[in-house]
Amino acid sequence: MDTGCLEIVVKRANNPLKKILQIVAAALAVVCALGLLVFGAFSLIGTVLFAALAWYLSQDLNIDYEYAYVDRELRVAKIINKSKRKEVAVYDLNEMEVMAPEKSHHLDSYNNRNLPVTDYSSHTEPARPGIRYRVCFPDKILVLDLEGEYAEEIFRSLRTYMPRKIFRD
Q1: Nearest-angstrom CA–CA distance, 17 and 57
Q2: CA quadruple 29, 30, 32, 37: dihedral positive or negative?
Q3: Cα angle for residues 23, 44, 34 (degrees, 5° grid)
Q4: pLDDT value at residue 87
Q5: Please, how many CA atoms are within 13 Å of residue 7, restricted to the half-sphere of its CB?
């Protein structure tokens, strides 16, 4: 059974604190730029620092995650400001131990292991229960939101290859 490449795009919730900090940094850069006439070089340093901070904060404001399922691999990419795509990680799903909804009893033994958790979800409460899944590997846990056009196909394909590792509860 060849599934080709199935993709899901998950919108991450924006952090309002970062947006406020970006606006404040941009305003301070403008104030420092206006202060060039009075204070000279000190104001130039402030202008450059605050402008760089505002630019850096703008790069992290609008991020979406893209999950691509290709040949039993899960490829996670970060889409920054709807213009740049950056590959984050590739996970071999043959190494996966279990995949289940977040509050499933199948994850009880993994919650006690203190494994590092990598969160690629939307960072909001899901609209429907059973969308947020945890994928457990021997050395890490991933948090994914499986909803969208191809989520059911990805789930069905995974269930075909690994029926004893995938749970829906």
Answers
A1: 10
A2: positive
A3: 60
A4: 93
A5: 9
Residue 109, judged by CB atoms within 10 A of its CB (0-12, 13-18, 19+), counts as exposed
Sign of CA dihedral 116, 127, 146, 95: positive
Q: 3-state DSSP call for residue 47?
A: helix
Provide the 3-class DSSP secondary structure of residue 142: strand
Hunting for tokens 């080709």 — which residue is that? 4
Q: What is the mean pLDDT of each run of 10 residues along the chain (169 residues)?
A: 72 84 92 84 86 87 86 89 89 90 85 85 71 88 83 83 84
Contact 104, 115 (CB under 8 A): no
The pair of structure tokens assigned to 21 is: 């900090």
Q: What is the reported pTM?
A: 0.76
DSSP characters over 15-26: -HHHHHHHHHHH
DSSP β-bridge partners for residue 87: 77
